Amino acid sequence: MKMKRNLFRLLVGGVFCVLVMSLYHVLEMMQGAETPGQDFYRLQQQIDKLERLLSDNNRLVVTLRDSLLHRQPARGAGAAVNVSAGSAHRPAGALPGCRLAQEMKGGADGVQLLDVYDLLPFNNPDGGAWKQGFQISYRGNEWDEQPLEVLLVPHSHNDPGWLKTFENYYQDQTKHILNNMLIKLTEDSRRKMIWAEISYFSKWWNDIDEQKREMVKRLVGAGQLELVTGGWVMADEANSHYFALLDQLIEGHQWIQRHLGVRPSSGWAVDPFGHSPSMAYLLKGAGLNNMVIQRVHYAVKKQFAQQKTLEFLWRQSWDSSPRSDITCHMMPFYSYDVPHTCGPNPAVCCQFDFHRLPGRRTMCPWKKSPQPITEQNVQERALLLLDQYRQKSRLFRSHVLLVPLGDDFRFVEASEWDAQFSNYQKLFDYFDQHPELHVKARFGTLSDYFEALHRRLNAAGTTLPTLRGDFFTYADRDDHYWSGYFTSRPFYKRLDRTLEATLRATEILFSLTLAEMRRFRGDGRLVSDFPAREHFQRLTAGRRSLALFQHHDAVTGTARDPVVVDYGTRLFHSILNLRQVLQSSAHWLLLLDKSQYHHDQSKPFMQLDDVISAHDALPRKTLLALNDEPRSLIIFNPTEQLRSSVISVVVDSPDADVIDAATGRPMAAQISAVWAEPNQASTEQFQLDFVAELPPLSLVVYHVTKASFGSAHRARYSFYCRGNPPVVQSEHFQVSRPEGPEADAPLSLSNQHIRIWSSPETGLLQKLRLQSGPVRDVRVQFLWYGTRRNQDKSGAYLFLPGEEGAQPYSSSEPPLVRVSRGPVFSDITSCFRHFTHTVRLYHLDGHAGRSLEISNMVDIRSEFNRELVMRLVSDVANGNRFYSDLNGFQMQQRRTLQKLPLQANFYPMTSAAFLQDAASRVSLLSAQSQAVASLRPGELEVVLDRRLQQDDNRGLGQGVTDNKLTASLYHLLLEDRRGGAEDVGGASVEHLSLLAHLTSLSLNHLPITMVAPSNSQTPALRPFLPLRSSLPCDVHLLNLRTLEDSQEADSPSQEAALLLHRKGFDCSSAPQPPLACTWSAQEEVDLDLLFSPLRFRSLRRSGLTLLREDDQPESARQPAAPRGARLRPMEVSAFRVEVA
Ligand SMILES: [Zn+2]
């Protein structure tokens, strides 16, 4: 039976080849016959399509051949090759992504943070900063054999925006710090300093002359100045998406390589409010071997201090090898300032912050001031400090001690440098003169510390423990959990992702354009009229705006109002600038006759179909005037998958036709009302939605024309409003207002995959059923949280809800509920006073039809100390476990613990969360970062917006009251599970399903619609189809990012960074019908085949930040040999490529 089917497939493949060959022949003849124009390009497009099909067919043949060859050892490693979706029903474990997940579900070695959380009582004895710790004792002879080696690491924490804007901090503080650094480090070669934020460093570099730059290089070369982490900013690790986390790291590392020729080796993250293993993964991938973290829950710090596990190898939860291990040092105490870094007693340590000497501006709050070190007091002072060092040292396994020396914006004035360095040098000299104290102390960089640490550990044969997990949710004291910032300023958290998607789309299209141009010209040069250099500068500026916003006071929503405006303006301008690059790249790619290309900045040939008018405004669709002449719509699909998408534009006619410009094929379309008010349809504007078939990374052209009266499918509407039948104005649409029993029946919508039922009173979802499965409860609710009446209240950082918990949302007036039904989509919209909530089903074949789209438009500006949440209440028996993502990179198990206060059970959600039991999984995929919790079994809730009138005493000095009309977007996915999970609610490592990955990809990378002038002025366009077929559905094209020319600054080089992320996926769900995509069972992937017909003229694997010294030389290869590259599940791989 199986053989028969295989033979049949081979036969089909053969017929295919013949068909394509003959079409080529026809094409050749036509080329000779000089018949350019539509027919020619229609034919060419058909051939492109056939080529894609042929390529898929080839893969099938390869699969079949391989499966025959490997029939015997089929279960061995790397046996079967491309597995088509048809075999999705094989037992879990047979596929590579699954195999990995299965392995990891066994026993995880080392410390698992989830277990630590189960173990700890979280009883907070005695409160207070280090009182949460314990008494540290020592005998005094511990260091007789091996002296204590102290490295004092001077640092200055410079926030790129917080209380002041980036620019103002730079002018007032940062540039003075760096100027003095040059002078003061040069004065004495024993002095050292570390610096983290490349955004500031590069700005300062632009301000200094060549002589000073040489001094900087000398200091770096001599090891006196170390650039740590080397990111553009010290990034937030909760709300940031891994695309942006990596991008800001690339931007920083590329800058460092270009200007200083070095690479960072140690990470320094002392202020982000909790820490993510995704960051550890990226640092390791970028070539760093060590890192420091600081803001960790005080109870975890105490536990780790007791266990001497403050230094550990941080391993990815999903990694069964030590490949991802990075040495991590966790600071033991409350803060990174001097009082909390020399030892456990802040009252003593503060006396060794010589910036607080009497007469200077800063004081010690513990009433004991520092004294200048003199011959008279040096002994007493040195012994006092040594006691702190010795106590702190007892918390670690080696006799090397890291002691940071610094604080926020320290070392501004020259006198501060002198005070710190000269007083400490006296203490160090005293230690040197007294060998009986068994201590050696010196200034050091972070790498000095880690070198000494590894030397000592190796000599002693000591290994560090392995740790898996993450450090959310952070608490610094009492029940002050920092879960508020997971949602604070949600408008900008969403704008961040809009810029991110725009940047990625523009990067890819720009890189492809340059490659096409070089191929077109044939001499490796670009088209002269194309402003490649200006566009590259726009891209660079866009990268840097996104990078700056990843700062831990930016995307977190924890900056002062004017600073938020500054960030928002940067994001907004970057989006506008990137759109220019996108538009003119698309213009050139689409032109049939490239000689017609002309760049005019003031009059772009095509424009995006929406307008963003200000940094705090939501995009608005532009109105397209239609007539008998076709208007060209150009759609860019920024994903690497063939997709069916619904494209939405606003037109001035209730009758319109859409055709595929290349084939003339009419597209399924629907006309809906544009609602000026919830019950009042516009008479001038109409929403036109049509189904577009978009090949991977393609630009496709559609024509829209005004159609004859009544020819378009119009949506039909039903309105519901309890006790108050609404007056509806809509002259172009059929409207019903059900009354009597009909008005009480549940509202129901369905497509071929899903049926839903909603409340006729509120319109909110109640039940859900997959195609043929049982009816499941999934109820949507809205609720309010307030804050405490007395004591500390919620603010930008902290979530401190009132004891009553969440209260159901209720409004004095019943909501207006509007149901729309049409051939392209159907939806239910509930209009409440504070929000408009829409649940939509698309009538689409592909994966877009398998989930429910949920969108909210929230406005809580009228409220006082309130937070609005959307809660899903399902019948999933997940116990106390659920999963939320970390930075969109991986899923992390969460356990809701009763011993913790409510606010501690909230976690960051960057892009996904799910609940599961043995039979099903409910996933919520999101297009923005928010706080998420599952407070009771079956429940999942996200915080939509928060309005808080007061400061929460973490330095910001204001509440959060700059709320805006804020949009949020999700897809809700119900999946059957087979094979089930052994543990209640799931194993410690779980992944999204392939369907969820595809849904999330589509949600985060929407098609981009551009409009060209009406057709009489339009030159002939042809679609741009760079890839013959979709990438395997577990391989994500994270970016194709043009690198800067090494000779000519601010100009694009011929090289690009190709970043591929191979996703791990869950295999216990098997969607019916199967997904229309393939994946490979091997880690080895042929990149030439994957990206065919694109060619890579050169291809070198590199570190994640594309540093040249990370490049692995190209393996010697035969010209015809496949371009193999290893893509491991869960891993991001970086290649330096020249696309040809
Ligand atoms: Zn900071």
Provide structural commentary:
The chain is an alpha+beta fold. It is built from 20 helices and 50 strands. It has an eleven-stranded mixed beta sheet with strand order 24-23-30-31-32-33-42-39-38-35-36. A hairpin with a 3-residue loop joins β35 and β36. α8 runs parallel beside α9 (277-285), α12 crosses α13 and α15 runs antiparallel to α16. The protein is globular, with a radius of gyration of 31 Å. The protein starts with a helix and ends with a strand. Residues 1-8, 10-38 and 58-94 have low confidence and may be disordered. Zinc ion (ZN) binds next to loops.
Layout of secondary structure:
Elements lengths: L1 H31 L5 H32 L13 E2 L11 H10 L5 E2 H7 L28 E10 L8 H22 L5 E3 L2 H10 L2 H12 L3 E3 L14 H19 L5 E4 L7 H9 L4 E4 L4 H10 L3 E5 L10 E5 L15 H4 L28 H16 L6 E9 L5 H20 L5 E5 L2 H15 L5 E3 L21 H32 L10 H18 L11 H30 L16 E2 L1 E2 L8 E2 L1 E2 L6 E6 L6 E9 L4 E5 L8 E9 L2 E15 L4 E8 L9 E5 L13 E3 L4 H4 L2 E4 L3 E5 L6 E6 L4 E11 L21 E2 L7 E6 L3 E7 L3 E8 L9 E7 L7 E9 L6 E6 L3 E6 L11 E3 L2 E5 L3 E7 L3 E4 L5 E9 L18 E11 L17 H11 L3 E7 L20 E10 L7 E11 L15 E2 L4 E3 H4 L5 E7 L21 E3 L5 E8 L1
Parallel strand pairs: 2-12, 3-10, 3-11, 4-5, 6-7, 7-9, 8-12, 16-18, 23-24
Antiparallel strand pairs: 1-46, 8-9, 13-43, 14-15, 17-22, 17-43, 18-21, 19-22, 20-21, 23-30, 25-26, 26-27, 27-28, 28-29, 28-34, 30-31, 31-32, 32-33, 33-42, 34-41, 35-36, 35-38, 37-40, 38-39, 39-42, 40-41, 44-45, 45-50, 47-49, 48-50
Helix pairs in contact: 1-2, 8-9, 8-16, 12-13, 15-16, 15-17, 16-17
Bound molecules: zinc ion.
The site of zinc ion has 4 residues, from loops.
